[in-house]
């Protein structure tokens, strides 16, 4: 039997199909973006050494001490000017006469006080004993009125008591510039009934209330004229040393007896004539609780008597 010859070629095995398609971009490719280099800023100084940092130099010790010393001087001067200087006279050694708790001005024989309701209840019997003391009190000024309608609540009782206990008495009005001067004068006249032996009426001027010098002088002169016409005597003008120089030193006021308030000085510095000097506000007088203003008259007792109403 004839075996047929196999002429068929062997069938090759199936090969895996390989895709020729290029790989998809399954992962995004990182792209590096270069930042522009910072621009160099030209420097005028030396380039710092690499690795070293600039450190602020501390302030030298002598500078700190100098600043502290200057501040101490300024603060000390301010404290002295505002808190010590106005009262330093109280602690000065007294080489002259001392009485009523203060150093009294030398060479004045006639002393007095001025009071208002601020002094409270006064022991007039004890106060009257000071008329015969080492520095006898001869006169008392009493606040009567203020402005156009305010009367001192203690005036009437104190005014009568002063005369009853042998003091030469006087009454004063506290001037309010912005209140009509005629109204103020009329109010004082209605309140104060002066008698023979009393001191002339007093106008106390301490503030301008923002008025000009001319307006203030006009109002003050109106009050003085009106009161003088009524009582028939030249009124006394009260003002501090500096206030008088600044506002009331004109010739029209020179004929009025001047009562000067001038504290913490050994003598009056005012060059013009004056009659009374209020030299302290911290006097201690038996019969009066608390501080009281002390005054002297510029002349003998006979001169004070001649000034009183006839």
TrEMBL record:
Stretches assigned to coiled coil: none
Record SMART domains: Glyco_25 (SM00641)
Biased composition (Polar residues): 16-30
Pfam families, per database record: Glyco_hydro_25
Basic and acidic residues bias spans: 1-11
InterPro entries referenced in this protein's UniProt entry, alphabetically: GH, Glyco_hydro_25, Glyco_hydro_fam25_subgr
Region (Disordered): 1-56
GO MF annotation, one: lysozyme activity
Superkingdom per UniProt: Bacteria
Annotated TM spans: 62-83
Gene Ontology BP, a term: peptidoglycan catabolic process
This protein's UniProt keywords: Glycosidase, Hydrolase, Membrane, Transmembrane, Transmembrane helix
Family, per entry: Belongs to the glycosyl hydrolase 25 family.
Name the record gives this protein: Glycoside hydrolase family 25 protein
Organism: Candidatus Bacteroides intestinipullorum
High-level lineage: Bacteria, Pseudomonadati, Bacteroidota, Bacteroidia, Bacteroidales
């Amino acid at each position: 039997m004839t075996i047929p010859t196999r002429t068929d070629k062997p069938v090759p095995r199936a090969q895996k199909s390989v895709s020729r398609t290029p790989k998809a971009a399954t992962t995004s490719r990182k792209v590096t973006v270069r930042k522009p280099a910072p621009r160099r800023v030209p420097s005028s100084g030396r380039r710092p050494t690499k690795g070293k940092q600039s450190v602020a130099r501390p302030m030298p010790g002598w500078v700190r001490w100098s600043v502290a010393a200057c501040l101490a001087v300024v603060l000390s001067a301010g404290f002295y000017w505002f808190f010590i200087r106005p009262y330093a006279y109280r602690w000065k050694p007294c080489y002259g006469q001392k009485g009523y708790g203060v150093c009294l001005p030398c060479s004045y024989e006639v002393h007095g006080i001025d009071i208002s309701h601020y002094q409270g209840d006064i022991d007039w019997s004890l106060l009257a004993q000071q008329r015969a003391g080492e520095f006898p009190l001869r006169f008392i000024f009493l606040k009567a009125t203020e402005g156009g309608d305010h009367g001192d609540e203690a005036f009437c009782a104190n005014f009568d008591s002063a005369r009853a206990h042998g003091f030469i008495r006087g009454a004063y009005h506290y001037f309010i510039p912005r209140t009509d001067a005629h109204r103020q004068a009329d109010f004082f006249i209605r309140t104060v009934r002066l008698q023979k032996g009393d001191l002339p009426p007093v106008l106390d001027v301490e503030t301008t209330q923002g008025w000009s010098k001319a307006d203030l002088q006009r109002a003050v002169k109106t009050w003085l004229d009106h009161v003088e016409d009524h009582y028939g005597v030249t009124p006394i003008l009260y003002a501090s040393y500096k206030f008088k120089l600044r506002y009331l030193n004109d010739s029209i006021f020179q004929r009025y007896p001047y009562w000067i308030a001038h504290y913490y000085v050994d003598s009056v510095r005012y060059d013009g004539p004056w009659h009374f000097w209020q030299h302290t506000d911290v006097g201690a007088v038996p019969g009066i609780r608390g501080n009281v203003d002390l005054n002297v008259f510029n002349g003998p007792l006979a001169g004070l008597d001649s000034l009183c109403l006839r």
